[in-house]
Amino acid sequence: MTQKKLSHLSVFVVLFMGLVIAGWYFSDKQQQSLTATISGNYDTVMKYDKYGPNKKAPVDYYTLALSWSPAFCDLQKQRNDGNVPKNQLYQCGGFQEFGWVIHGLWPQNAKARRISEHPRFCKGDLAELPEATIEQYLPESPSATLLQGQWEKHGACAFDTADEYFAKQKELFLALSLPKFQLNKSELFKWMRNNNPQLNGAYMGASKSELFICYTKEWEPMDCPRNRYQ
Question: Could you report the per-residue pLDDT of 80-105, keeping only the tens digit for each?
Fold first, then answer.
């Protein structure tokens, strides 16, 4: 083998080993962030919720709330002097990229005019879910605290089990085509209608970094009420 070939081979070996070491490093950091997310206390305590329970409100339709993860992570860093809170490392630590993620699937009261008038905490203050249940749904909703909270506040008002609730919101989420980049409200609505014929021109809602898609009780897309509250 010539000196030139040996030199090229050496460069290749060095680059390959660098990639392997980098892969190990990021895999280890990702695992650490996952462990931090599901090993701490992620329970929701109902008495600390500012809106409280509403067990009597009817379920007339559902809202699938999606969040633009980069905006959420930027906000977390702003609130914490540029640092990522330990329980948000899985989503915001930079070891994997999240775009649109599931905030929650909300049973809604058509007559509600404020948050507290929607169904909430219908089964009271529930126990913390098993880590195995939480971990299964982190790829679409990358926060144990979020998953636990959404189940207690919203999911328990319409589903018998957390698995049924999370599976349904995942099903709706995966049925959507979503942009890989952030758009303003009008551009986002146009993109969604052009790329999701099943929405059939349904009126959606949006905030600065969230998208709301509404469904009937038979899980057909519908117009979101224009005066809706989460």
Answer: 998 988 888 899 987 788 999 999 99
Closest CA to 122 of 140, 137, 109, 103: 109
Give me the sign of the Cα torsion angle 41, 42, 45, 50.
Answer: positive
**How many angstroms separate the CA atoms of 75 and 6, rounded?**
50
Q: Count Cβ atoms within 10 A of the Cβ of residue 166 and give its class: 0-12 exposed, 13-18 middle, 19 or more buried.
A: buried
* Cβ-contact 53, 122 below 8 angstroms: yes
Concatenated DSSP letters for 131-169?
HHHHHHHTTTS--HHHHHHHHHHTGGGT-SSHHHHHHHH
The answer to whether the beta carbons of residues 51 and 156 sit under 8 Å apart is no
Model confidence, pTM? 0.83
| Radius of gyration for the chain, computed over Cα atoms and rounded to the nearest angstrom | 21
pLDDT in tens, 174-211: 999 999 999 999 999 999 999 999 998 899 999 989 99
As a whole number of angstroms, the distance between CA 178 and CA 213 comes to 12
What gap in Å lies between CA 193 and CA 88, rounded to an integer?
A: 32
Residue keyed to tokens 């008002």: 157
User: Are residues 188 and 176 in contact, defined by beta-carbon separation less than 8 angstroms?
Assistant: no
Strand duo 61-68 + 205-206: pairing: unpaired
Q: Which domains does the chain have, with CATH numbers?
A: 38-222 (3.90.730.10)
Q: Are 157 and 124 in contact (CB under 8 A)?
A: no
Report CA-CA distances (Å) from 85 to 27, 46, 74, 138, 176. 19, 22, 12, 17, 30
d(CA 182, CA 179): 7
